[in-house]
What we know:
Elements: E1 5-9, E2 15-19, E3 27-32, H1 39-50, H2 54-67, E4 69-75, H3 77-88, E5 94-97
Antiparallel strand pairs: 1-2, 3-4, 3-5
Helix pairs in contact: 1-2, 1-3
Amino acid sequence: MAAVSLHRASSAGRPETIDSSRRDFGWRTILFNCDCHSFQQVAFQLVKAIRCDFQRGLALANVVHLTGSATVFKGSRERCEAVSEVLGAIGLRVTVDQ
């Protein structure tokens, strides 16, 4: 099956990116707000991590800033951990959970 990325609002009204290419996509990567990175830094790292465009990265960074955290990706455990590693590479606070 081809990889499919979907963008939708979560039940809390927050935008999410979902990788439904695998059956085991009950995991999520949560990004937490910090005051040590600019919106642009976070957006560029989101572009790398979840393969979105810069505008989407900025939108997600804004949600994280306004709400304190946001689910930025849903997918398999392995993919969520990979996203977490990319985000964490610049010192962003992230967690992966089910």
